[in-house]
């Protein structure tokens, strides 16, 4: 029997940690500078803001958003500059080492629900690396609301989520900007049903139909080189890569079109209060031929909580799936096909979110618990080999298995003949995915630009662009007779993130004023060419969004100071002065 997963920290411990975090923030929030200024010993320096983001080749929108934000900030007297950097470097600086003022990014999780906010905002994650609370945000009231929505149901939970959204909109640790549409190009002479295969769902690849019997390979093109260089499902640097790793790794339960379906687990049953028993399908195996058993499942839940496997004083949690992994208090394996997961006070519906994490092969990942060996890089504390490995070749149990990868060129996956979709009847699954892939191979080709990606599809050398084309290629797609334009409503959002660990961003009033310099409607028109929807709440595309935070032309909490994308400079500066800030003779905003 495998030992249980360690229980998470107690509430008292979390509050003690939070008190330390909050105290540290208070110490850096400008009080000392204000005191020195009053005493006449030191003049405040002008506020200088660096907005970090990725270059245009990595994201067609993020850099444009950052540049527009910098213009708006400068109109209010803030010395703002934009610093683009490669995705891996940005994520290391922002998500691992927390070295930033502001950053523009796109939240990678496309399966948002109310509990997604737990890992994004809870103070227990404020010092951890990864997408869990990258803002260092600490608020006891928010923590209580996050806990309440986990332990209540019905109207009580809905009220907690409503209060949570309102509080976050006022506190503004990050500013939601817009939910983009995902633009793709496809041709239907070899495969069809691309229009029904959503870009943010890995299983969309499985519902394609083969039109040409000789088309053994589905050929996809992408501008994201990460799909050829890293296939680690635990890394923060996902996005389009996450769609691929979701095809390589299987969970106990798979989410598809908003519903959950049994996947590696043929059944799940609540055997007692707070204890769920999952029975694995028979004869499961990993791509390397090793059997997948309950011990691998238990190992996975332990590993997501601490990739050092308890071998250090400091835990090294994963950069993804933390909110879901913290739901599980213990995991045991009574036999090879049975897993018992014990939860805390969470409701059953929330607890089942934990069933959607990837199951890892213990014989592969147990060798990655040591400290990473990457020369010349400060990787931050609590890091292990598991959190930096490229994980090529990957070994999973999913419907597609790894064949080869050439950096900056191509990735090849093949249909896994021993997957349960290929070997067993699955009447409980949707017909669209129950028969597995319609292709024998998935060949993913990396190109350097959106136009090159479209050219490959138009010439017949590719069948589909993976995702994320910019609006600059819309006319090109529309004019090509052989191409179909696919536009999906994305479930993930672009945002402006604040580092609340440092001044002046630790001050919620300052963050609110920055948010008032953002014209979302103008961003949608100028950056996204209207292929996006402005939003205030991260839950805007769920049924959890409240009426008062649904977009109706303006932000009711932090309305734009200006009109038609132009900041009203006089009004903006008056707002900063009213908040206690001053300007120097050159019109520059001064710190406090």
Automatic annotation (TrEMBL):
Keywords: Signal, Transport. Signal peptide: none annotated. One of its GO terms (molecular function) is peptide transmembrane transporter activity. The keyword Transmembrane does not apply. The keyword Transport applies. This is Peptide/nickel transport system substrate-binding protein. GO terms for biological process: peptide transport. Residues 261-587 form the Solute-binding protein family domain. PROSITE patterns: PROKAR_LIPOPROTEIN. InterPro entries: SBP_5, SBP_5_dom. It comes from the Archaea. It comes from Halomicrobium zhouii. Transmembrane segments: none annotated. Belongs to the bacterial solute-binding protein 5 family. It holds the Pfam family SBP_bac_5.
């Amino acid at each position: 029997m495998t030992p249980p997963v360690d229980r998470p920290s107690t509430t008292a411990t979390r509050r003690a940690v939070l008190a330390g975090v909050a105290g540290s923030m208070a110490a850096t929030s400008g009080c000392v500078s204000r005191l020195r200024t009053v005493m006449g010993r030191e003049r405040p320096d002008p506020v200088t803001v660096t907005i970090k983001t990725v270059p245009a080749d990595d994201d067609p929108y993020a850099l444009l958003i950052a540049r527009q934000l910098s213009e708006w900030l400068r109109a209010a007297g803030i010395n703002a500059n934009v610093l683009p950097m490669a995705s891996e470097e940005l994520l290391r600086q922002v998500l691992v080492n927390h070295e930033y003022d502001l950053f523009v990014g796109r939240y990678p999780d496309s399966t948002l629900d109310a509990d997604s906010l737990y890992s994004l905002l809870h103070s227990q994650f404020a010092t951890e690396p990864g997408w869990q609370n990258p803002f260092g945000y600490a608020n006891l009231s928010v923590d209580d609301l996050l806990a309440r929505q986990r332990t209540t149901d019905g109207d009580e939970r809905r009220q907690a989520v409503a209060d949570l959204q309102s509080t976050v909109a006022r506190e503004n640790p990050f500013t939601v900007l817009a939910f983009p549409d995902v633009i793709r190009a496809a041709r239907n002479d070899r495969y069809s049903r691309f229009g029904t295969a959503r870009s943010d769902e890995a299983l969309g690849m499985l519902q394609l139909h083969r039109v040409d019997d000789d088309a053994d390979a589905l050929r996809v093109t992408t501008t994201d080189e990460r799909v050829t260089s890293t296939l680690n499902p635990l890394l923060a640097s996902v996005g389009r890569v996450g769609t691929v790793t979701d095809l390589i790794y299987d969970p106990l339960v798979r989410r598809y079109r908003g519903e959950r379906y049994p996947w590696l687990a043929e059944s799940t049953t609540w055997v007692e209060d707070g204890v769920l028993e999952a029975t694995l399908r028979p004869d499961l195996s990993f791509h390397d031929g090793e059997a997948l058993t309950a011990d691998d499942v238990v190992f996975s839940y332990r590993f997501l909580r601490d990739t050092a496997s308890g071998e250090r004083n400091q835990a090294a949690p994963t950069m993804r799936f933390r909110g879901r992994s913290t739901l599980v208090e213990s995991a045991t394996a009574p036999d090879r096909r049975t897993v018992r997961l014990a939860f805390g006070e969470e409701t059953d519906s929330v607890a089942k979110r934990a069933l959607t994490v990837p199951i890892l092969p213990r014989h592969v990942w147990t060798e990655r618990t040591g400290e990473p060996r990457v020369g010349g890089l400060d990787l931050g504390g609590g890091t292990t080999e598991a959190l930096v490995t490229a994980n090529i070749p990957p070994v999973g149990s999913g419907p597609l298995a790894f064949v080869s990868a050439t950096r900056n060129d191509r990735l090849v996956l093949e249909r896994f003949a021993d997957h349960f979709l290929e070997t067993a009847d699955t009447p409980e699954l949707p017909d669209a995915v129950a028969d597995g892939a319609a292709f024998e191979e998935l060949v993913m080709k990396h190109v350097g630009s959106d136009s090159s990606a479209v050219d490959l599809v138009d010439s017949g050398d590719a069948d589909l662009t993976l995702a994320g084309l910019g609006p600059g290629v819309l006319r090109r797609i529309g004019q090509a007779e052989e191409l179909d334009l696919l536009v999906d409503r994305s479930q993930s959002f672009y945002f402006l993130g604040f580092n609340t660990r440092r001044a002046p961003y630790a001050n919620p009033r300052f963050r609110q004023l920055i948010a008032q310099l953002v014209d979302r409607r103008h961003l949608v028109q100028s950056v996204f060419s209207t292929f996006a929807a402005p939003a205030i709440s991260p839950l805007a595309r769920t049924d959890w969004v409240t009426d008062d935070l649904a977009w109706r032309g303006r932000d009711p909490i932090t309305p734009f100071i200006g009109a038609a994308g132009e900041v009203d400079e006089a009004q903006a500066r008056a707002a900063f002065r009213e908040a206690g800030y001053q300007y120097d003779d050159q019109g520059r905003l001064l710190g406090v």
